[in-house]
Known about the structure:
Alpha-Beta Plaits; homodimer; 45% helix; four-stranded antiparallel β-sheet; four-stranded parallel β-sheet; 3 domains
Amino acid sequence: MVLIGAGLIGTSIGQALTAAGVQVEVRDANPSHARVAVGRGAGTQTPVDPAEVALVVVAVPPRAIAAVVDEALDVYRNAVVTDVGSVKEPQLRELIDHRSLSRYVGSHPMAGSHLAGPLAASADLFSERTWVITPHEDSAPEAIATVEALARLCDARLITMAPADHDRAVGRVSHLPHLVSVLMAGQLAQMSPDDLALAGQGVRDVTRIAGGDPGLWEQIVSANARVLVPELQALADRLSELTQRLERTEPDVRPLLAQANAGVRKLPGKHGASAVDYASIVIEIPDAPGSLARLFGDVDAAGVNVEDVAIEHDPMRLVGHLRIYVHPDREQALTRAMTDAGWRVSTAAPPL
Amino acid sequence: MVLIGAGLIGTSIGQALTAAGVQVEVRDANPSHARVAVGRGAGTQTPVDPAEVALVVVAVPPRAIAAVVDEALDVYRNAVVTDVGSVKEPQLRELIDHRSLSRYVGSHPMAGSHLAGPLAASADLFSERTWVITPHEDSAPEAIATVEALARLCDARLITMAPADHDRAVGRVSHLPHLVSVLMAGQLAQMSPDDLALAGQGVRDVTRIAGGDPGLWEQIVSANARVLVPELQALADRLSELTQRLERTEPDVRPLLAQANAGVRKLPGKHGASAVDYASIVIEIPDAPGSLARLFGDVDAAGVNVEDVAIEHDPMRLVGHLRIYVHPDREQALTRAMTDAGWRVSTAAPPL
Lengths: 352, 352
C-alpha cells in the first residue's frame, strides 16, 4: 500500500501495517517527515509500480485531503483510496461532482494525541479505538471491504456510518464541545490574575480541550461548519434563555440545570455500559516519588477494585489529592483500610 | 461557638473546631441533621447562654443566609457572626440597609463535595484549601480577627477580598464555567444515542460539573446574577462572532482559537506555580485488581516522579489507559523502563 502523509496518524498506520506484514511505501511532501517515519518502522521509501498498488491511505491535513485523494485516484488506477480526516461530507461533495468515486471510501480513526508528527506515532495508536468507515452510494463493496480490513489490521473497532451522519455526530459530541471550551477559555484570557487565583478544578476541566492546536482545529471546524453553525445557533438560543431567566427579579434557572443533569447522564458510561454512580474517596498524597506506588499497594491489599482515579491538584497547597472511584458497596471497606494504613482519607472535593 | 446549619460545610467546621478544643453548640432546623452532626463529633446540642457566645457560624443554604444572620445578630448580642455562602455582596446589601453590621464578617470556605449533608462531613475538608474572608467597611477589626482565627483553626489558607471583588472573581472563574458546562450538557440532552456513541473524553470533561446539584447551583447563580448576566452577555457576543466567522465562505476562526489557547495558559498551574508543559506517556492497564499497584511499583522502580495522572476510559473497549505526566526530560527513561517491565506503552490520546 501507499501512505501519503507521514504525520502522527499516517506514521502510526504505516507502523501497524508494516508490523502486520504489509509492504508500505511512505510519501510525504516534507522529505524529513518521510525519513523519520521510515526510521520508525512505518515502511520504506522505495517507489512501487502505481498499477500494482491495492490501497492508498491519504493522511494529510484536512484542508489538503480532497486534492490529494483526487490525484491518488488518477495515479493509482487500480487502488482503493481512503483518507483519515475528521470531517467526511464536504470533501466527498467536492470530488463526486467531477469523477467516479467507486474506489474511494472515507474513514475516520478516532485516535490522536496532543503531540503531532511522526515522532509521536505508535503502532497501537488505534488499538481497540473507534474507527468510523463512511462509505457513500458509489463505493464499491470490494473497496469498502478493503478499508474495513485496514481498520482491522490496526486493531480498531469498526463503526459504519453515512458521511453526513458521521459529520453530524462528531460535530455535536466533539467539535461543538471544543468550541464551547474555546468560548470559555477566551473569556479567561480577559481576566485579571486576582480573579484567576480563585480558579478550581471545574474551570480547568471545562477549558482543557481549548488548549488544543489552533491550526488543526481551525481546519476541522471550518470543514464541518455546515453542521456546527445550526448547533451554535441552538446554543445561542439556550444562552439567551438562560440570561433572561437569570435577569428576572426572581431568577428561575432550575429547568436548564435539571436538563443539563439529564444530558450528563445520557453520555455512555465506562466501557460502553450505562453510567454507574461510583462512590469515591479522597486520599492525600505527598508530592514525592513512591507515594502512588505505596498508595495503590495499600488499595490492592484492601482487595477493592479501582473503577477510576483522578488526581486533584490545589494550586494553593503543596500536596495533591487522589480521588479513587469504587463501587458504592466497597467505599466503607476502602476508607477503613486506607485510614488503618495511615493515609489521610477525606471527602474533600474540588472547590465549587 | 454556635453552629447554625449542620450540612456538609457546617458539620465539617464543627468537627474541626471540636477537634481543636472549641465548645460547639450545633443547631439545625432539621433535628435529625443536628443529631447526626453531633454523633459525628461536630459538637453538642446542649444550649449555651446566648450572651456568652463569641462566634456564630451560619452554614445554611444560600437563600436563607441573610435572614439567619440577621436573627443571629439579635439573639447572640456579643457574638461575631459569619456565614459560609458562595456569594457575599447581595446578602450584605440586604442586611446593611436596616442595621449595624460591625459584628458581621462574611467568609467563603472554597471546599465542597459532590455529596451533601452531615454524613459526608470531614474535619479536614478545609485543610489547606482557600478560605476567602470578605470584610466590609463596618466590620470591626476584632470581628475580622475572630473569623480569621476560625479559618486558621480549620487549617485553611486565608485570602482577604472585598465582598464585591470576591463575587466578581468566583462569578468569572467558577459560576460562569458552571453555566457554560450546563449549556453544553443541555444540548447533549437533545442528542440521539447514535450521536452520543461517538462521545470521547473531551465532551466528558466539558460537561462534568454540569452534573452538580441543581438545587444548590440555582441558589448560587441566582444570588450572583448581577455579576453573571454581563459575563453571559460577553459570552453571547463571543459566540455570535464565532458563528459569523464560521459562516463565511472562507471561515476564519483562528483568532478565537488562539485567544482560547492564551486563556488556558493563564490559569495558575499546579501548586500555584506557572503552568509547566509536562510530557506524558500512556500505559494500558487491565481492568483488574492490583494492576495499578503493580504499575506504580514499576514507575517507582524507574525513579521517575509522577507529576499528574489520569485514567482515560474508552467506552468502546474493555481496558483503560493511564496517562502519566512527568517532566519532559524523564519521559524517555520512563517509557523505556515501563516497556522493559512488560507494559504496553503508547502515545495514544483520547479521540479529538
